[in-house]
Design brief:
Length: 517
């Protein structure tokens, strides 16, 4: 007899759990002669199963549950396990599939069998294979080789990523970052060469994947000669080769490489950048002073307190010093640089000022002369005062300093045996603490400054010139407190690139376990 939906029905003597007509239940009787017990298993599996002990029949389904029935079930389970082991000893994953296809797994009318045997072996209720749990990411990544680093977006790859399924877009915790998530920023300044490779995490934040920093003193002798010296250019090129090697080993979605005051003011600045392109493959752009000031603000935006209404942010560099006056109203923008009301760039930094006044042996008189020189430059900066009617700084105003000068002061203040960025970045210093640290550094000779682990011999002749610039800023904008920022242009570059690409808007859909904590 045939059912058009389910096929042939089992015979009345088969192992069926269906009821007889009239409501009576059917016991499992003895198998008829000539009919194999495992009619659902074909071929050689029958020959192997024939040597196994017979499977005990289930008692009448109308008999109440009791201890005897439970014992029979356990014995039958052990017997079936033995059969499965013989059927596929070398592939244990196949044993549940064979067991699920036998007569004990399903009823005679084609419905699923007992609940504990349902959906085994990766099959659905109707015997259809289930979809795989996760795509094979390794096979896909092996088939598609990584693209070469580029400073531009790969629009074709980006479109393909948008079409990917959700499971492909979300990486697992601890996995390698997606290649399209990596951004790189390089800042070649008058004194340092710095590189950051980072990946966006929570909105407005990122995780540093790789970093590099080296003092190259590219602007050495620039104030007197007006040109970059051969020795300084050689040091910078060697540092940039290290940066190029770090970038070539990663699939960077977008990068921005900048050069600041040294290349901006040197007669042979463009010539030097052409040499960098030939020898390292890196194409650097010279940014103007306004862009440099805005990038410094972008890099330190997360350090501006929520209760602050006005801030003066300064970046004391090697060849120039950027100052931005920020006024924050009721509607605070996500980009702090939009709140800049006044800015200036002083053509003086720690390298140029120390070369003019001497940085090794600095007396209080020399220190005051350096301070007054910077004060004269600030006097030409047209900016309204930020103090109240009584000449006192308002409570919702503070300074933010981002440079080696302020981080050095913070390290000396904390008496660190070794410089630790985690303890310095974001540290608050009172006005009295800043004055005390400057006086301490001024009391040390060159050897004493060089012996300090937070200064070292490379900065021992520059730190007091930076303190003189800081002192001039403090005299122009008195404040009760100052916040230290161990960040700057690189962080501003990364923040701007990630915001322009909207990566933080996309990352809001990521699972909570995949976000940076």
């Amino acid at each position: 007899m045939t059912d058009p939906d389910r096929g042939s029905k089992p015979s009345s003597e088969g192992a069926s759990t269906g009821k007889r007509k009239g409501g009576g239940s059917r016991r499992r009787g003895k198998a008829r002669k000539g009919v194999p017990k495992h009619s659902g298993v074909a071929g050689s599996a029958l020959d192997v199963a024939a040597i196994e002990p017979p499977v005990p029949r289930r008692p009448d389904i109308d008999v109440p549950e009791g201890p005897a029935r439970k014992r029979k079930r356990r014995r039958r389970g052990r017997s079936m396990q033995g059969t499965s082991a013989v059927l596929a000893p070398s592939a244990p994953d196949h044993a549940p599939q064979l067991a699920a296809s036998g007569p004990a797994a399903s009823s005679g009318d084609g419905k699923p069998g007992k609940k504990r045997r349902r959906n085994r072996g990766g099959r659905g209720p109707q015997g259809r294979p289930l979809a795989p749990a996760a795509p094979a990411q390794a096979a896909k990544s092996a088939a598609a080789p990584p693209a070469a680093p580029s400073s531009h977006n790969n629009h074709h790859a980006q479109g393909a990523r948008r079409g990917a399924s959700g499971s492909e877009r979300f990486r697992q915790p601890g996995a390698e970052p997606w290649p399209d998530d990596l951004y790189a920023a390089l800042d070649l300044g008058t004194n340092n060469c710095r590189l950051l490779v980072a990946q966006p995490t929570r909105p407005g934040q990122f995780r540093v994947v790789d970093a590099f920093s080296r003092i190259v003193r590219l602007g050495e002798g620039l104030g007197t000669q007006g040109r970059l010296s051969a020795e300084a250019m050689d040091r910078a090129v060697e540092a940039l080769k290290v940066c190029a090697a770090k970038l070539s080993g990663r699939d960077i979605r977008r990068m921005r490489l900048i050069a600041t005051e040294a290349c901006r003011s040197a007669e042979n600045g463009e010539e030097f950048l052409s040499r960098v392109l030939v020898e390292t493959g890196l194409e650097l752009e010279i940014i103007n002073r306004e862009t440099e000031a805005r990038l410094a603000v972008s890099g330190c935006s997360s350090l501006v307190g929520r209760d602050a209404r006005s801030v003066v942010l300064f970046d004391i560099g090697g060849g120039s010093s950027e100052i931005a006056v920020i006024s924050i109203g009721e509607n605070r923008s996500s980009r702090l640089a939009n709140h800049i009301t006044h800015w200036t760039s002083l053509p003086v930094g720690v390298v140029t000022l120390s070369e003019r006044h001497g940085g090794q042996h600095v007396t209080p008189e020399i220190f005051e002369a350096m301070t007054q020189e910077v004060e004269a430059m600030l006097a030409r900066f047209d900016c309204p005062p930020l103090s109240d009617l009584n000449g006192r700084p308002p409570e919702d105003f503070h300074l933010i300093g981002t440079s080696g000068t302020v981080t050095t002061l913070a390290g000396v203040h904390l008496d660190l045996p070794r410089y630790d960025r985690r303890k310095v970045d974001g540290l608050w210093l009172s006005d009295d603490e800043v004055s005390a640290m400057q006086a301490k550094l001024l009391s040390w000779d060159f050897d004493g400054r060089a012996a300090n682990p937070c200064i070292g011999p490379d900065r021992a002749d520059l730190v007091l010139a930076g303190c003189a610039i800081l002192e001039a800023i403090r005299r122009r904008w008195p404040s009760n407190r100052m916040r230290v920022a161990d960040r700057g242009l690189r962080e501003g570059l990364l923040t701007d690139m990630m915001a322009d690409d909207g990566v933080w808007r996309r990352n809001r859909r990521r699972p909570s376990h995949d976000r940076e904590r």
